[in-house]
Amino acid sequence: SGFSLFNAGGIIFMIVGIIFSKKLADRFGKRDVFGTGLFLSALCLLVFIFFTPESIALVFIAQILHGFFYGLTIPLLWAMIADVADYSEWKNNRRATAIIFSAMIFGLKAGLSIGGALVAGLLGAFGYVESAVVQAPEVLSGIKLMMSVFPTLTFMVGVGCLFFYAIDKKMEVHMEKELTDRRKAD
To answer: What global pTM score does this model have?
Structure first.
């Protein structure tokens, strides 16, 4: 079915993005590749607002591109969290890996819970009727917003937050060298 192909295309190209992630991060730095991937992924979502029901090929292309660019970000997020643990050790001479990862996982679970509740709340606010075979036009417009504009806004907030994330490629290399030297000295 078309929906299965739609999802499969996004997932396959997400895996391709994951494969390219490390190579790109080694060359350009995790923060910059993560930010670029997140930004481009958001743009691929945003274009869904402009598609008509007849734009099947464009929908598939946007989904595939979104999958690829989002795939770049997946392993980098976790690697960047490990960099935060290294940063903590570098600055404070003390590892804080457990608290950093547990805070991240708490944030992830809280975000998934809030996101799930928001989907249900927004569908209700737009007038979604579960038993209806055909939804009202305002419901369909709301669903398009939920598939395009709303996730784009949240992704862009993430991109904006990266301006405050100081661990770029240069700092990462510098921290790694200093931590290695410290550990050898101990």
So the answer is: 0.90
